[in-house]
Amino acid sequence: MRTVYAINFIMISAQGKPARVVLLLAFIFVFASPAFVSAAQQRVKVVASIPPLADFARQVGGDKVDVALLLPPGASPHTFEPSPRVMQEIASARIFIKIGAGLEFWADKLIAAANRNILLVDCSEGVDLIRDAAHDHGGLHGADPHYWLDPVICLKVVTRIENALIAADPGNTALYRKNAAAYRERLVALDREIAASIKTFRTMEYITFHSAWNYFSRRYGLKVAGVIEESPGKEPSPRHIGAILRALKKMKTKVVFAEPQFSPKIAEAIAREGGGRVLFLDPEGGLKGRETYIDLIRYNVSMMEKAMK
Ligand SMILES: [Zn+2]
Question: What is the pTM of this model?
């Protein structure tokens, strides 16, 4: 097939410009050569819903995987609307990795329509989920899906992704095992680093923008004193804002946390009224300087240090 193309090309271009012909032929041979094609084909195409999962897949898969991210950085999974590009990504993927627990409430139908053969990895399986009616999309789950903000839980998530890659691409089992083990060690070190930082806090209470921080708080002994948007994307009532203000006045810190995926206007108004200031926590990641999970968690701990140390 490739030879036929090349011969046709030489015949058509026989009286054309020789330099361009050579260049184009070189292009065809490089990109159609068996070595190039097999290297590209061997890569496992993985689609992940949120940046931390995409990072885990890259950490474990290395150069044996092509990882696509469904949610553009800065988007919230709670208010996400899939585009035709998303359908294409899923249609051509071998593995889809999701948080589950109702976070990607838009994903299941999409996958059924786009790709029935995809290997679906629901990372919430086996996780000790926190019950939370506020995050209940359509009455199906009733669970808080933000467990990825607990690095200890992510040890299991990484293992789940490691097993999925091995199932899809058993030829690289040893590499996936080695990468996953090395990355889990980094998560263990991260967990120790966070615990050491939190020991220096003068207060354990904080006000968050949406209820993303329950797992992190459970792990490190923090207390969420108030949540501005109890249902993500839905504006709080004046009565609820009043309750947040009363909580803020009793607290040792005068910081209200906003999040980059949502407008900071309400957090700013509460901070003004309560004589405090606004800092940003980021539960999703993917933005500049926090593309990797470890950088994302470190960023959040540094913001908490500013507010609570
Ligand atoms: Zn959330």
Answer: 0.84
Distance CA(226)–CA(216), nearest Å, equals 15
Cα–Cα distances (Å) from 73 to 61, 104, 256, 288, 304, in that order, read: 21, 15, 23, 9, 22
Q: How many domains does the chain have?
A: 3
Residue 11 domain boundaries? 2-39
Structure tokens at 306: 């500013």
Examine the domain organization and report whether 242 and 293 are in the same domain: yes
Instruction: Let me know whether 281 and 155 are in one domain.
Output: no
Give 131 Cα–ligand 1 centroid separation in angstroms. Answer: 14
CA of 77 to the centre of ligand 1 (A): 7
Cα 213 to middle of ligand 1, angstroms = 9
Whether the pLDDT of residue 39 is over 90: the answer is: no
Q: Are residues 179 and 49 in the same domain?
A: yes
Cα(103) to ligand 1 centroid in Å equals 8
Residue 233 Cα to ligand 1 midpoint, Å, equals: 10
